[in-house]
Amino acid sequence: MGSLAGEVIGVIDTEGDCVEWTFSAEPDAVRAARSLVRGRLRGWGLDSVGDLAALLVSELVTNALRHATGPIGVRLVRSYRDGVLLVEVSDPLPDPPRERVAGPDDEGGRGLQLVASATRRWGTRPAETGKTVWFELAVPE
User: Are residues 46 and 139 in contact, defined by beta-carbon separation less than 8 angstroms?
Assistant: First the structure.
């Protein structure tokens, strides 16, 4: 994981149920976020949702990179009580993302459709600076 250190500009780990990373707004952030999410979920014994969570985080981080220029945050929170994994991706742009219908030849426009169809719930909320897009995945208890 030493090769990821250049892209990660902050880590908060609360010993167990929550971890968050902050990435520079650079293309390598997508790969770094995907890898760190998979690794943490594997460590939590949540391999069953690791690939899906990593894919959805990739989509949201890519969206953030397309539209924002500041740091991008990724946060994972697991709740044993609710059987839920909450995933949040934050960026400094205040405008909420808009779900759109992508045509068959469009290279983009499917990220939020994928998030909406693959998750239990999802949404967006304003943050002190920018916004957070979040989703929930059901996890084995």
Answer: yes
